[in-house]
């Protein structure tokens, strides 16, 4: 049985990748951060008590800021594949927590790569490594962006990802490691964090439809993104680690839409006019914006044989349907007299 070690298992991508790896017969080891409350909502449906037989998803405390803990995990798990999905992944937050983002999203990758290098040197066992690189690294570069586009990062987050990208390349070249960067363009799903714009929109659409929220406050509606479905994108991550030799890849749909277009489509699906509900709040503007990301994934598609399965229309519909259902449950609880917090999304 192959063993995979994932950082970021509690995130959007971690949950879909875990489902995929379990379906392929892997034993999946996930790194979780200690918190005063449980933070495993996205993977709870996959959890089995490790005391019972057949548990193949096993969780370990760890943190990308803790090198010695990562080294211990390598020894304990002895993985065949490591997927580094953990990060402070919010672009706007990275402006408020620039140093922390550099530490976790940047240096964290180096800590993990060095732990793997050391483990390989001592045991002679090869570990395959996936780095969650991002289209944010292209930043201000003109579209379409692909493997041959120079990086021009526009946030502390993107700068940290560029650092991780080159550390991954350098470990491949210097130490002959099987290490790949997957440069993934935005990918979304009903499991997307609620402070990212697509989910913020679909969550609001559900609540406005059910009379739980009057308005949706957003920032730059003109930003364009190449949005795919996370479930499709984690398949590409896995495929990258199954090839004869390591290299970097770009994963995208090749279609871009503006935030405004995403919102209009989402509101249309429930029969509402987006313009009546959206207000602009400058607090959601970023000090430097990434205006237009459109992926050129042709080379990757040819090499990997990967194509996205979910269209933009299907993605928006799946997210809206999910969040209308969530809002319906919230409405039911409120009508029954329960006090539930309709959590806001602060400055993000
Ligand atoms: P999420 O924000 O949903 O998940 C991030 C994960 O990282 C969570 O499990 C989080 O744990 C974990 N994490 C945060 N800080 C640390 C830390 N100090 N040590 C260990 N783990 C930590 O991100 P996504 O699932 O959307 O993205 C996965 C990866 O892919 C990220 O690296 C992201 O930057 C990158 N990426 C994402 C894209 C997208 O469109 N989704 C596109 C390109 C790249 P916790 O639950 O405890 O907070
Ligand atoms: P992004 O995603 O920055 O592309 O990073 P996000 O959904 O946060 O922003 C996309 C675009 O929408 C604009 N926007 C808003 N964004 C947020 N969050 N909230 C708002 O109210 C709002 N209004 C407009 C933004 O300005 C931006 O232009 C995501 C993350 O998952 C990264 O980790 C990943 O690397 C990249 O995608 C690819």
Automatic annotation (TrEMBL):
Domain (NAD(P)-binding): give its ranges: 5-319
Q: Which CDD domains match?
A: GDP_MD_SDR_e
List its EC numbers. 4.2.1.47
Q: Show the Pfam families listed in the entry.
A: GDP_Man_Dehyd
Q: Which UniProt keywords apply?
A: Lyase, NADP
Q: Which EC class does it fall in?
A: lyase
As cofactor, the record names: NADP(+)
Report a single Gene Ontology molecular function.
GDP-mannose 4,6-dehydratase activity
Swiss-Prot/TrEMBL catalytic activity: GDP-alpha-D-mannose = GDP-4-dehydro-alpha-D-rhamnose + H2O
Q: Which InterPro entries match?
A: GDP_Man_deHydtase (IPR006368), NAD(P)-bd_dom (IPR016040), NAD(P)-bd_dom_sf (IPR036291)
Give the family from UniProt. Belongs to the NAD(P)-dependent epimerase/dehydratase family. GDP-mannose 4,6-dehydratase subfamily.
* Entries under NCBIfam families matching the protein: gmd (TIGR01472)
Q: What does this protein do?
A: Catalyzes the conversion of GDP-D-mannose to GDP-4-dehydro-6-deoxy-D-mannose.
- The molecule here is called GDP-mannose 4,6-dehydratase
Q: Which organism is it from?
A: Deinococcus rufus
């Amino acid at each position: 049985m192959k063993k995979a070690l994932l950082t970021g298992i509690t995130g959007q991508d971690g949950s879909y990748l875990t489902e995929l790896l379990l379906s392929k017969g892997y034993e999946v080891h996930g790194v979780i951060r200690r918190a005063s409350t449980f933070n495993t909502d996205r993977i709870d449906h996959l959890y089995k008590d490790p005391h019972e037989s057949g548990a193949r998803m096993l969780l370990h405390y760890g943190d990308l800021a803790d090198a010695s803990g990562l080294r211990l995990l390598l020894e304990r798990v002895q993985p065949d594949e490591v997927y580094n999905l953990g990060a402070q992944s919010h672009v706007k937050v990275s402006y408020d927590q620039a140093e922390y983002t550099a530490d976790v999203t940047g240096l964290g990758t180096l800590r993990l790569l060095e732990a793997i290098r050391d483990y390989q040197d001592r045991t002679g066992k090869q570990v395959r490594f996936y780095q969650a690189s991002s289209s944010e690294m292209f930043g201000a570069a003109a579209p379409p962006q692909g493997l041959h586009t120079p990086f021009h990062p526009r946030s502390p987050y993107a700068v940290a990802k560029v650092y991780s990208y080159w550390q991954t390349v350098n470990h491949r070249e210097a130490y002959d490691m099987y290490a790949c960067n997957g440069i993934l363009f935005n990918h979304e799903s009903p499991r997307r964090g609620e402070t990212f714009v697509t989910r913020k929109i679909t969550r609001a659409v559900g609540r406005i439809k059910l009379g739980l929220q009057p308005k949706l406050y957003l920032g730059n509606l003109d930003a364009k993104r190449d949005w795919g479905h996370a479930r499709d994108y984690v398949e590409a991550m896995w495929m990258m680690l199954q090839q004869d030799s390591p290299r970097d890849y770009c994963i995208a749909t090749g279609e871009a839409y503006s935030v405004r277009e995403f919102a209009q489509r989402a509101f249309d699906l429930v029969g509402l006019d987006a313009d009546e509900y959206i207000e602009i709040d400058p607090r959601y503007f970023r000090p430097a914006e990434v205006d237009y990301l459109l992926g050129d994934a042709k080379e990757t598609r040819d090499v990997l044989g990967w194509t996205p399965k979910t269209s933009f229309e299907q993605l928006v519909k799946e997210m809206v349907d999910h969040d209308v259902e969530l809002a319906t449950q919230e409405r039911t609880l409120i009508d029954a007299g329960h006090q539930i917090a309709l959590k806001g999304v602060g400055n993000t």
